[in-house]
Write the structure tokens for this entry.
Amino acid sequence: MKKIVFALILIPFLGMAQKAENVLKFSLPTPWAKDVNPENVWNEYPRPQMKRDNWKNLNGLWKYAILPVSEEFPSRFQGEILVPFAVESELSQVKKMVGKDNNLWYQTSFTVPEHSGSEKIHLNFGAVDWEATVFINGKKAGEHRGGFTPFSLDITPYLKKDRQTLTVKVWDPTDAGTQPRGKQVADPRGIWYTPVTGIWQTVWLEKTAEDHITTVKNTPHIDDALLRSEIAISGLSHDGVLKITAFSKGKEIATSSRALKQGQEKAVFQLKIPDQILWSPENPHLYDLEIQLLKNGKVVDKISSYFGMRKVGLGKDENGHTRILLNNRPLFQFGLLDQGWWPDGLYTAPSKEAMMYDVEMTEKWGFNMLRKHVKVEPAVFYYECDKMGMLVWQDMPNGNYFEDLRIQAWEEKDAERTAESARQFETELKEMMDHLHAFPSIVVWVPFNEGWGQYDTERVTEWVENYDPSRLIDSPSGWADRGVGDIIDVHLYPGPGMEFPEENRAAVIGEFGGIGWAVDNHIWWNRKNWGYLTFKDQKEYKERFIALMRDLTGLKSSGLSAAIYTQTTDVEGEVNGLMTYDRKISKLAPEETRPLIAPLYKKPGRLMTIIADSEHKPNTWKTAYNIDPDWNGEPRKIKGWQEQKAPFSSYDNYFLPDGSTWKTRENLGLFKVFDLDRIPEEIILRYYLDKAGMKVYLNGQLVTSEKHEGGRKRHYRNLLISNARKYLKKGKNTIAIQVLPQNKDHAFDLGLYTADIKDEKEF
């Protein structure tokens, strides 16, 4: 049994609570903000997977009021708010806090399209954070709990002649409750951001017939070249016919019809796709799909949809490692941690063009994937990713980091939620998966991030797997692994490092990097800004990024399937983005990053062990203590060498096997002799260095000097040495290491490996 140690706290600047008036005093406009006005605000059709021509956008200026929860209905309003921007945002034109003791009220009026007595008028909300109650002409029409998913109400029974009055009440406890909330808190600091309350996606009307299509769930099966399409309908008032037709580049390729009985609510089609064109990042081919509901031969409802033929799974690569497969072939997925926050709009980008600029830059830098981090974007976002071929790992928004539901990385028990809290989390999880199921770009679900509200991991993961077998499950991303899901995921800052793939799980780095550079005049606030490592200028920043990319490449031969670099943009106090928070400065140009990233998409060679590390089995070294800090790595200059087993630790380290106790704060020297029958071009140092610095010598030459940089309590780091021929020779070689403790609690281990990358594309 491994032993429990004290927590490594990675979240800085917990600080004292700020006054409400200080939370929203910062301003940093993006280039798109100047084009936002009540007549030009998010005019795109908001549901691309189920599109009708007949719709009406209700975005624009509404009335608002922030009133105590004790007031049942507003008797007054305090001004105007620009929907769909959260009330705390600059673009809302309000920029005020709400809090758990108040409700945010909205009101607007509208006219409805002309409609017959049998037709329906639907009121749709893209997302409202968190609890929304909707009134039409003073009567309650419905309610919804959940800040990240759409909901729709049939408001036909509540309509009157002429103009209609829409009133919406919103209550949001932010971080005072256990509801899914992502990274918003009442007191922003560190990695936690400004509160988001109220309507933050498009509000719109749509007219349908009494009998109409309600949902479409498309799932591709490329091994059988067919599309499974599950279509829900409103419960037919008469017998009818449902017809679906698929098109490729405007040409009809397949069609099918199904007779429906009165009262029927669902029909399932399996449409054979001839000469299927597989969807991939290099060829993101999309098929169009037209769905018609007919009664007595007349079309009463018609929607446009689309689909992509692709498959996500696991399999073995040429070296026997379990790898993530796309369309039955290994494809290394390298992406950015994408928070989706905006200095002027918070959750809501100023426009679709602004929102997709982040994805366009992600592609230009050379990444083929993004991890949408504890947030759900508007459906248009995923549609554009589908068209671009950008892979998406989708997080379930969660929270509770500072509450009882947080667990530590070494804890063997999950957090315990109340039945009500668990039910709400799982309701919102299912709504998110239903809402996003049909987007081919989404290839991985992430139910839990780190220890934020992680509970019943095995049960929740099994449910997600069974509910959507067409995608992989990363559960949890980082932190307390429970051996479930399709992926073993580590978070390591700055890293990189990994756990080795398992028989039925692929290995990924769910977060690494996080290097920061605060660019003058493009910073959010007047307090301390941070990254996991922060550099003073672009030169230092670029040098470390180059080193990280080289080290990451060395991990492919160990079986690494994917990696996610933190992050796309700076966000509030975080300055570790590849762009500034206002999107005006790119810290590295695409022509600088693409050559560094390109080797990751080539086939890996086989990992060869020169000296094994001791993560799983202790290895013996010659050791000596209290060595001279100026020692140059020559073993003959040290007397009294003894044999000891690695790893070396001064404390009971839960994350390492039993090795040798390093009780003192004395410097530690190690050496080992090893044989080589050939000299590799590159070597990989895989090491564990906690609260210590090290110098590594090969045959008397200094290879590298490293120090503890935080975030290594749980995993080994990999360092690629490219000019190995400078240090090595055929036959016998000597490695010598000097380790200097920096703290009373320190630990060390190291292994030496070699690998190469083949000069051919993986996919």
User: Anything to note?
Assistant: The chain has a mean pLDDT of 93.
